[in-house]
Amino acid sequence: MRPVHPARPAVFGLPCAASVAELPEQVDLAVLLVADPLPLIGELAGAKARFAVAFASGFAETGRAGAEAQERLAEAVRRSGVRLPGARHPALAPAAHRQRGRPGDP
């Protein structure tokens, strides 16, 4: 795990790179813990990151402005080649919602 933060030298005792481009190896999975992941998509694409997961809010669930922000993010992701699953992706659904059948069913 390699944290990236533009202003902190370390996070939880781990040294930070100031940008994705400064990481010493290719990124397999980026976990984005930011309010707006859009600015990072181009940086991830430039570093040839293959996958990202964003923990963010303020998109279509908040209304028109959020839906427009969501569409801008989706378009940037489509252009970038980075795979970013959406909030309704089955892999991100709680386990109870993924369950097929009822408990005790064969």
From TrEMBL:
Native organism: Streptomyces corchorusii (Streptomyces chibaensis)
InterPro entries, A to Z: CoA-bd (IPR003781), NAD(P)-bd_dom_sf (IPR036291)
Compositionally biased spans, kind Low complexity: 83-96
Protein name: CoA-binding domain-containing protein
SUPFAM superfamilies xrefs: NAD(P)-binding Rossmann-fold domains
Basic residues compositional bias, start-end: 97-106
Gene3D superfamilies (alphabetical): NAD(P)-binding Rossmann-like Domain
Domain CoA-binding: 3-85
Sequence segments annotated as region (Disordered): 78-106
